[in-house]
Amino acid sequence: MEAATDIKDSLQRCGIRRDVDVCQLSLATKKLTSVPDLSRFRFLRELRLNNNKIRELSCRSLNCCLTELYLHNNNIKSISGTLNHLTCLRLIFLHNNQIRGLEDTMHELRRIQQLQTATFFLNPISHEPGYRHHVIHCLPSIQVLDGKEVKSKERRWSFQMHNQERHRVLQTVAFCRRAT
Questions:
Q1: Among the four 40, 66, 71, 154, which has the fewest Cβ within 10 Å?
Q2: How many of the other CB atoms lie within 10 Å of CB of 74?
Q3: Cβ distance 108 to 82 under 8 Å?
Q4: d(CA 141, CA 116)
Q5: Contact 50, 56 (CB under 8 A)
Q6: Percent of the chain whose pLDDT exceeds 70
Q7: Whole-angstrom Cα distance, residue 75 to residue 93?
Q8: Residue 130: which of 110, 99, 103 has the closest Cα?
Q9: What is the full DSSP assignment across the chain?
Q10: pTM of the predicted structure, to 2 decimals
Q11: Contact (Cβ atoms closer than 8 angstroms) between residue 151 and residue 158
Q12: Closest residue by Cα to residue 90 from 39, 122, 47
């Protein structure tokens, strides 16, 4: 009920009376422990849930047309099974949580082909060996990772690291040599 009051107050402050007029919603710093049902906001594009106490995500009620999602500074342990339907997402901030399992996290985000900006720093996954290259490889559209631009050289290196056999064949084909 507390989240419903926060939503109502936020909409009143902005002078919004109809749910269809909501394209941005900020529920930051509201001490939320879970993601409220926001399915009534069909045109929601930007959602701020940062600086709360969210532990588990249940984002199935979120609109699949959401383009920006701010979930940093919470207590989220996993995003598995929660975000893969958000295929229009271009920006996601997940830094300063408790996210573990790099492979599971990347598996969850793999369908989001327009994702350009993501943050995962200050999470246990960001300390896993080869973290940055693995993320760049799994999310080929990423342009900015953890606040740092992804350079083309870094992208090539990630491709080479994670596709060594394919890279070897491509190199030999490109220079008309037979692969050995």
A1: 40
A2: 24
A3: yes
A4: 6
A5: no
A6: 89
A7: 13
A8: 103
A9: -HHHHHHHHHHHHTT--SGGG-SEEE-TTS--SSPPP-TT-TT--EEE--SS---S---TTS-TT--EEE--SS-----TTTSTT-TT--EEE--SS----HHHHHHHHTT-TT--EEE--SSGGGGSTTHHHHHHHH-TT--EETTEE--HHHHHHHHHHH-HHHHHHHHHHHTT----
A10: 0.85
A11: no
A12: 47
Whether 114 shows a pLDDT value over 90: the answer reads: yes
pLDDT at 74: 98
Among candidate residues 145, 136, 137, the one with its CA nearest the CA of residue 164: 137
Give the amino acid at 44. L
Structure tokens at 44: 């929601």
Q: Are 29 and 52 in contact (CB under 8 A)?
A: yes
Residue whose C-alpha is closest to residue 78's, from 62, 58, 56: 56
Q: Is 71 in contact with 92 (CB distance < 8 Å)?
A: yes
What DSSP string runs through 69-109?
A: EE--SS-----TTTSTT-TT--EEE--SS----HHHHHHHH
